[in-house]
Amino acid sequence: xxxxxxxxxxxxxxxxxxxxxxxxxVKVALSSRGFETGTVRWPGDAPSRPPAPRPAFDxxxxxxxxxxxxxxxxxxxxxxxxxxxxxVLTSAPRGPLWGALFTAGAAVxxxxxxxxxxxxxxxxxxxxxxxxxxxxxxxxxxxWGRLQAxxxxxxxxxxxxxxxxxxxxxxLHSGDTVAGIASILEVAPATVRSQVKAVLRKLDVNSQLAAxxxxxxxxxxxxxxxxxESQPIASGC
Length: 237
Description:
Layout: E1 12-17, H1 20-32, E2 36-40, E3 59-63, H2 69-81, E4 86-90, H3 96-103, E5 106-111, H4 116-128, H5 137-159, H6 163-173, H7 178-185, H8 189-203, H9 208-229, E6 235-236
Parallel strand pairs: 1-2, 1-3, 3-4, 4-5
Antiparallel strand pairs: 2-6
C-alpha cells in the first residue's frame, strides 16, 4: 500500500470544548480554511454514540473558559491523555492557569479574542513542527507550581482543625452567621468567635471571607478531581 504524503491530504485537527455549540461552530470555521476536523469528547460528557476509532490528528484546538476548577482539570486531562500538540483558546487571563495548561502538555495558549487567521496560523505551525518556545512559559509554569504548593499547604492546614473548628468552618461556608452557629450549636456567640479566630489562625488568613473562599476552592478542587479522574476520553468525527 502506498503511503499518502502529508502534502496530499488535509491537516487533521482535534477539537475539544465543554460546549457542543462552540465545537460545531469551530469545526465549520476550520473546515472553511481547509482543515479536516474531529471531536474529542469532553471529560464528563455522556457519549451520544459508541466511540469511533480515533483518527491520527496532526494537532488539536481546545476551547474553555477555565472559570472553574473542574473545567481546568478537564482541560488538563484532555491535553495529558491525547498526546498531540495542542493550542488552547481561553478567556482566562495570562497567569497560573496558562502555566497549568503548559504543564499538562499544551504547546500554545491564546486569548479567546485571537483572530481566526492567527489561530489558523498557530494550528498550521503545530501540525508541521514542534511549537516555538512561548515567551514567559517557564514563569507561567512556575506560577502554577506555586499555586499547587499553596493548595497542598491549605490541605495540611485544614487537617489541623479540630472537629468543632471544622464544623464551624463548614457552617460559615454554608452562609451561617456567628449568631446562627451559636444558636445551632447551643453555645455562646463568644465561644463561636473564639473558634473562628482559631480557624483563621490555622488557615493563615485574615478574615472569615478569606477562610470561606479558601475552603470553597479546596472543596471544588477535590470534587472536580474525583469526577474527572473517573472519566475516560473518547473521540469520533
